[in-house]
Design brief:
By secondary structure, the chain is of the alpha/beta class. Helix content is about 45%, strand content about 15%. The protein has 16 helices and 10 strands. It has helices at about 5-15, 15-20, 35-50, 60-75, 80-95, 115-125, 135-145, 160, 165-180, 235-240, 245-255, 265, 270-285, 300-310, 345-355, 375-385; strands spanning about 110, 115, 190-200, 205-210, 220-230, 255-260, 285-295, 315-320, 335-340, 360-365. The strands form 2 sheets. The chain has an 8-stranded mixed beta sheet, sandwiched between helices. It has a two-stranded antiparallel ribbon with strand order 1-2. A hairpin with a 2-residue loop joins strand 1 and strand 2. Helix 4 runs antiparallel to helix 5, helix 6 (about 115-125) packs parallel to helix 9 and helix 11 packs parallel to helix 16.
Length: about 400
């Protein structure tokens, strides 16, 4: 028992005599989604480094996977501080990295000596006079929502705000707004990594991260790799984590545009997929025979439902640590991967879904759990997917 705790216990019995000895109560800093994101990206990066260097013995792999999955259970029960502490413990297990302090609130953001919101307000004012009802409606919506990310103090609960570089975002917005003012779509043939929003079915706004490789800006059609994150994640997870963003590298190597929408919005109806594909076909030359899906956990279930609803439009689908049977006629080839140590969605459930899916392939990852298996899942899934065309 620490001195402070002993004094606290004694003061319950002798409060009048020990009022002078009581230490002031200092509130612990609130642990936010930004803290959780930073912690997970730390352990994901170290795990990926050990994986790439082939210095991760099976015993340590199993130990770390169990630890990270305990953190996931803490997260799902709302115990954010416990989740961060457990994730950082896993990082220490991997490399002896000292546990960093809980992150402090991000200070005000400044652009050219003025609050970031000043640039935001200027862009929004210019966009307000651009026609929002015609062919530029989707582009205008996306640019407007991107401008709204230029806040003075980013929300620690919204990764689109705390992960973006405001200086780069402002430079990009200056170009996008200028192009829109000239009556053109700034996203046609645009390559690079961008957070975007599009209007799906029933006027729903679907946030997404889109990464178009340089090869997308040529005459030869490119394919699409759609990745769907799990519960508690968001549209930035696959791009910034899950194997240190390995999927972006693999997609570029296969000449695929990577699209990572917010699963809990996107997965509500297959019509969101229809709207997305219409948008991509407007902006790029899409090879419709090379449209692929990867989903993890909740995203695996969404991927299975989409393959069931739009089988003719999907070349192949991979489900990591999740999924459900795909039984529709003419269904795309399907890969199910379970994780041996997964206590959230047990491998037996994933295997059962695969067995109920005609022609499905099932694989089991030994010594891995629910979260950290995604990096190796992507490494296995992408070459498997691109071996098929529709």
């Amino acid at each position: 028992m620490t001195i402070l705790r002993r004094l606290s216990a004694i003061s319950v019995l002798f409060a009048p005599a020990l009022v002078w000895a009581q230490a002031p109560v200092v509130a612990a800093p609130k642990v936010t989604r930004a803290d959780l994101a930073a912690a997970y990206m730390r352990v994901d990066a170290v795990y990926t480094q050990r994986e790439n260097a082939k210095t991760l013995p099976d015993s340590l792999r199993a130990q770390v996977n169990r630890t990270v999955d305990r953190a996931a259970l803490s997260f799902f029960s709302g115990q954010f501080a416990a989740a961060v502490g457990t994730i950082d413990a896993a990082a220490v297990q991997l490399g002896g990295v000292p546990t960093p302090p809980v992150s402090a609130p991000v200070g005000p953001r400044v652009l050219n000596g003025a609050p970031a919101s000043a640039a935001r307000d200027e862009y929004l004012a210019r966009l307000a006079v651009v026609d929002s009802t015609g062919a530029l409606a989707q582009a205008l919506l996306s640019t407007r929502e991107r401008a709204k990310l230029l806040v003075d103090v980013p929300s620690p609960d919204r990764s689109a705000e705390f992960l973006n570089d405001p200086a780069k975002l402002s430079r990009d917005l200056a170009r996008e707004v200028s192009v829109l003012e000239r009556g053109r779509d700034p996203y046609i043939g645009l390559v690079g990594d961008f957070w975007r929003v599009y209007r799906g079915a029933n006027n729903a706004l679907v946030p997404m991260r889109i990464v178009a490789p340089p090869s997308a800006n040529v005459r030869k059609p490119v394919g699409v790799l759609l990745v769907l994150h799990g519960a508690g994640g968001d549209e930035n997870m696959f791009v910034d984590a899950y194997g240190s963003g390995l999927v972006t590298k693999l997609a570029a190597e296969q000449r695929l545009i990577l699209v990572s929408p917010k699963t809990d919005v996107f997965g509500a109806t297959p019509e969101h997929f229809d709207a997305l594909m219409a948008l991509l076909r407007k902006e790029f030359r899409i090879d419709s025979s090379r449209v692929y899906l990867i989903g993890h956990s909740m995203g695996a279930g969404a991927a299975a439902r989409l393959a069931q609803a739009r089988p003719a439009q999907i070349a192949a689908v991979a489900m990591l640590a999740g999924g459900s049977p795909i039984t529709v006629p003419n269904a795309p080839p399907s890969l199910f991967i379970g994780a041996e140590l997964d206590g959230i969605i047990p491998a037996a459930r994933v295997e059962a879904a695969a067995k109920a899916t005609p022609g499905a392939t099932y694989e089991l990852f030994r010594h891995e759990g629910h979260l950290l298996m995604v990096g190796n899942g992507v490494r296995r899934a992408v070459p498997w997917l691109v071996s098929y065309t529709r």
